[in-house]
Amino acid sequence: MAMEINNNNLADLLAGDQPVVIDFWATWCGPCRTIAPIVEKLAAEYEGKVVIGKCDVEENDDITMKYGVRNIPTIIFVKGGQVVDKQVGACSEAALREKIEKLL
């Protein structure tokens, strides 16, 4: 299951050894709900290799501003503390899987 990413755990996650994938979303966002099952599936599949989590934009303004998220869903891919890729808008499972594989 995708973990909840917030102001309390972001720094520790980014300082860890694993790449981090953050799905910025909101409860009222239709496309966010569309890709949610894909994000959950990939989180389970890559557990132990990649940290995959969800960040509610309405509860985490600081993180949203830090990464310049203006549209949702936005998924960022972080390796070594640096953003190495970004997906804005809904996309296919294959597209997300490809981006995650590049992190490994």
Description:
The protein has 104 residues and is of the alpha/beta class. The protein has a single domain (3-98), classed as Glutaredoxin (3-Layer(aba) Sandwich). Helix content is 38%, strand content 26%. A 5-stranded mixed β-sheet has the order 1-3-2-4-5, covered by helices on one side. Strand 2, helix 2 and strand 3 (51-56) form a beta-alpha-beta unit. The protein is globular, with a radius of gyration of 12 Å. It starts with a strand and ends with a helix. The mean pLDDT is 96.
List keywords for this structure.
104 residues; alpha/beta; Glutaredoxin; globular
CATH class: Alpha Beta
Proper CATH architecture: 3-Layer(aba) Sandwich
The span between the termini is 19 Å
Q: Give the strand content.
A: 25-35%
The tally of helices reads: 4
Number of domains: 1
Q: How many β strands by DSSP?
A: 5
The percent of residues in helical segments reads 25-40%
- What is the H-and-E element order? EHEHEHEEH
Mean pLDDT: 96
What does the main sheet amount to? 5 strands, mixed
- In the predicted model, the low-confidence regions spanning at least 5 consecutive residues are none
C-alpha Rg, in Å?
12 Å
